[in-house]
Amino acid sequence: MAILTSGATIGILGGGQLGRMLAVAASRLGFHVHIYEPGANPPAADVAHALTTASYEDEDALRAFAAAVDVITYEFENVPTAALDLLEAIRPIRPNRRALATSQDRIAEKDFLTGLGLTVAPYAEASNISAAIAAVGTPAILKTTRFGYDGKGQARIRTPEEAAAAHASMNGAPTVLEGFVNFSHEVSVIAARGLDGSVAVYDPGENVHVDGILSTTTVPARLTPTQRSDAVLIAARILNALDYVGVMGVELFVTADGLLVNEIAPRVHNSGHWTQNGCAVDQFEQHIRAVSGWPLGDGGRHSDVVMENLIGDDILRVPDIATERGAALHLYGKAEARPGRKMGHVNRVSQGAGGSRAG
Ligand code: AMP
């Protein structure tokens, strides 16, 4: 497919805040965006050219959506396989199906990563929890293999005696048992790969989670020069192996023995929001460039940034944050502030030691 030019339409599966910020970036490059979202009032619809409100089982709606766009991407990785089959027969989907299938299932993901020679936490398929505990040991974390996010679908197992109850709490869902990693901190790398195979990697960010939800991302992350280049190389390796096109988030644990890959997300990522105010070309524009066949942009970091998520009632602090120097607000236009709901974020920008040209 040729490079998309102004006036072309990018179809996005999912209408949340990631879709909203992708749509804004696409419109800056002269594109139209068509959002496909089953739920009512999606945040992305406010800034999109067209909206389809239909389920992922509605074949007529899927067909009409695909016919109306030039390329299909997604902000949400749990799109049903049957919907993807139907869409892919009509228009290209970027990133590709293999990236989605790999990241949708924690076991497929870990098998893929270990196959690349990368290190992950010890793991075992856990339909027989006693056998899994025997293989992995304790402490460990039991996770559903699919549909987990923000720490949901997880149970800590401190001793073998806790295993049966943890397993029962998963209500029969397929699970994987992971050995507990004694990490000092968590970082993530946001990386992009273009249609021509070129790769651009953002400087790693350091993540802090509260109650399983990302709270802050800080750049620069605390990493040695060797760890920093390892992080970048790990991300590039994953993208090349998947023949990936678009932006990916790669979450890493920093340990005394090196970096372990926790998980990959085949989409723009919350821990990459700092790029909106720390780089000339942010993760959203980079993703739109990649899926449109454009050259990747300059992802070098020009400033230090602390990104803070505004969750639930944090939204009440907006009037104060709005008066802060160096604070760039990004709000998602969600009407109702429920506990745990991501309402927006703030990037606090400062001039540090001069940035880093990781891109
Ligand atoms: P995940 O949904 O896999 O990203 O896990 C959510 C959070 O739980 C991670 O960001 C870690 O803080 C923690 N966590 C997940 N897996 C492990 C592990 N194997 N060892 C230690 N902590 C973990």
Folded structure, characterized:
The chain has 359 residues and is α+β, with helices and mostly antiparallel strands. The protein folds into three domains: 9-93, 3-Layer(aba) Sandwich (Rossmann fold); 122-179, Dna Ligase, domain 1 (2-Layer Sandwich); 185-350, ATP-grasp fold, B domain (D-amino Acid Aminotransferase, Chain A, domain 1). The chain is 27% helix and 28% strand. The protein contains eleven helices and 17 strands. The chain has helices at 17-28, 59-68, 81-88, 97-104, 106-115, 129-136, 163-168, 225-241, 275-278, 283-291, 318-321, and strands spanning 9-13, 32-36, 50-52, 71-74, 123-125, 140-144, 154-157, 175-179, 185-193, 199-201, 205-210, 213-219, 246-255, 258-265, 304-311, 327-331, 342-350. A hairpin with a 2-residue loop joins strand 11 and strand 12. Helix 2 (59-68) packs across helix 3 and helix 4 packs across helix 5 (106-115). The longest helix has 17 residues, at 225-241. The protein is globular. The protein starts with 8 loop residues before the first strand and ends in a 9-residue tail after the last strand. The structure holds adenosine monophosphate.
Q: Name every ligand kind in the structure.
A: adenosine monophosphate
Output the CATH class name of the largest domain: Alpha Beta
Number of domains: 3
Approximately how much beta-strand content do the residues carry? Answer: 25-35%
Average pLDDT, all residues: 95
Record field, number of beta strands? 17
CATH architectural category of the largest domain? 2-Layer Sandwich
Q: For the report, how would you describe the main beta sheet?
A: 9 strands, antiparallel
**What's the CATH H-level homologous superfamily of the largest domain?**
ATP-grasp fold, B domain
Radius of gyration: 20 Å
Helix content: 25-40%
Overall morphology: globular
SSE pattern: EHEEHEHHHEHEEHEEEEEHEEHHEHEE
What structural class results from the helix and strand content? Answer: alpha+beta
Distance between the termini: 26 Å
CATH topology name of the largest domain: D-amino Acid Aminotransferase, Chain A, domain 1
Q: Count helical runs.
A: 11
Spans where pLDDT lies below 50 across 5 or more residues: none
